[in-house]
Amino acid sequence: MTVETTGVVGAGLMGRDIAGLLANAGYDVALVDVDPDALDRARAVHESALADELRAGGLDVSGTPADRIAYGTDLEALSDADFVVEAVPEDLELKRDLAGSLEGVIDDDAVLGTNTSSLTPGDVAAGMERPERVVLFHFANPAMRRDLVEVAGDDATDRALETAHDVARAIDRRPIRLRREYRANGLSRLSASIKCAATWELLEAAPAAVDVGARNVGFDRGPLELIDLIGLDVHLATVDNLAETYGDRYAPPPEWRTRMEARVADGRLGKKTGAGFFEWDGETCVIPEPAEPHDVTPILAALVNEAHRLVDDGVGDPETIDEILKRGSGGDVGPFDVEAMFGRESLRETLERRRRETDAPVYEPVF
Question: Does the predicted TM-score (pTM) go above 0.85?
Fold first, then answer.
């Protein structure tokens, strides 16, 4: 399928960046959001900073990509789009309602990509007349800096999957085809395991000690900074979405769930409000120097454990899972590389010890 015109629904951070990547690839883009203020903010960023952001992500800038983006609040603006990406909040009913509405607007041959991080294409497409047109089209965050798009769809047609693959290639992202669709895909499950384990380590250490310990072993960002980056509110909503499939596997300790909910109620959502687990100075997370960094071996063990679960679930082979984490995090080490460095037996012993001490499902060993 030849894609000429594209659309994005949702003008938040991810939708704004996805629209910019599509425009830079030469596509005409319609960016739609119900909130005119969100569209104005996206337009301002595109006009003032899109070219610089693309270059910072290692991409060549094609002309003036901002000129290829149109902005609107009506889904009818997408009527000519061959490929549409939904990037609205992680609310299942919202995404289903949007998918149903889009079906009445876009052409019968158009493909709908969902950037969901905690649901599946099947979840989103339920109730549509043509669910086979919906594919996973999931970016790492930040989309401009991370060379990854996860593509999947148990019920999607080969044509829809190939279209998603081709669009990802066109925007200079690496498409990785998942063998099966699961809630949280591959990257988000790995990320969820790290974030969850980090919250359990908060029972023994301060946030700064945990994140500095993580950086000391090679993390680009600490796991609690990652929660701040996406927002505490989004993180808790994601945990709730995943609970429908995985139970309490990714749940934080009850006392830290309560603390995070209190921070959300107080408007401490993370980067987007300037404070969450940490204070933020614009794009910079301000992490105080701890008296002593925390031993983050249990977090690494939880990461490796989740990688084994992904292989057992048929999402991908070890090489694919390693590539997902490397490209999605911008690092050089995948979970099976971690296993090789630390030793399988040592990591299993760490999991067993923390499982006894906390009873947290994230530490239940599967290898």
Answer: yes
